[in-house]
Amino acid sequence: LEEIPRPIQDSGNILKQGYLEKRSREPSFFGSEWHKRWCVLTQRNFLYYASEKSKQPKGSFPIERYQARLDPQLRKDSRKKCCFQLLCPGKRSYEFTAPSPAEAQDWVEQIRFLLRDLSSLTIPCDEDEEEEEEEEELSKDRDSSDSMNNSQSSALNPEEPELEGDDIYEVMPGE
């Protein structure tokens, strides 16, 4: 549902919005052109509109897997410290100029925060932790087979109850 652009007023999940200058994809005869755009960062997408009052975005893209970074090399004029880029391998990059260096920094931080949040939805598994878990499982298997070989009843080992047939109830002492 979030892929379908909605009017700005209807978007309840806006994290940041404001005017930025966006560099056009095709450079003109005079070099790259910067166009003022109303930009909106939602929980999943980055959208840009012709103005704050526009109903349909001029463009949008899913923000996931993009990287945000300040880039003073984008401009040569006095606004170079206000520039930042959104980059994603294999996808189009986007270049923006904020009204101030502090505002550019804020956009970058908000996007990075969102990207960390999106990537934390999947819990990374460290290979060392995985190996430790496998060793613990092997150790438990060895311990249980040792106790079986020593003819110890599983009733004496409450960690691993033995299931006999369909009886799923634990035998309590004194019963």
TrEMBL record:
Record region (Disordered): 124-175
Domain of life per record: Eukaryota
Compartment(s): Cell membrane; Cytoplasm; Nucleus
Broad class of where this protein is predominantly found: membrane
Keyword Metal-binding found: no
Residues that span the membrane, as ranges: none
GO cellular component, one term: cytoplasm
Pfam family, one: PH
Record keywords: Cell membrane, Cytoplasm, Membrane, Nucleus, Phosphoprotein
Residue ranges, compositional bias (Acidic residues): 125-138, 159-169
SMART domains for this protein: PH (SM00233)
Domain PH: from-to ranges: 13-116
PANTHER family, sorted: SRC KINASE-ASSOCIATED PHOSPHOPROTEIN 1, SRC-ASSOCIATED ADAPTOR PROTEIN
Protein name: SKAP1 protein
Species annotation: Quiscalus mexicanus
Classification lineage: Eukaryota, Metazoa, Chordata, Craniata, Vertebrata
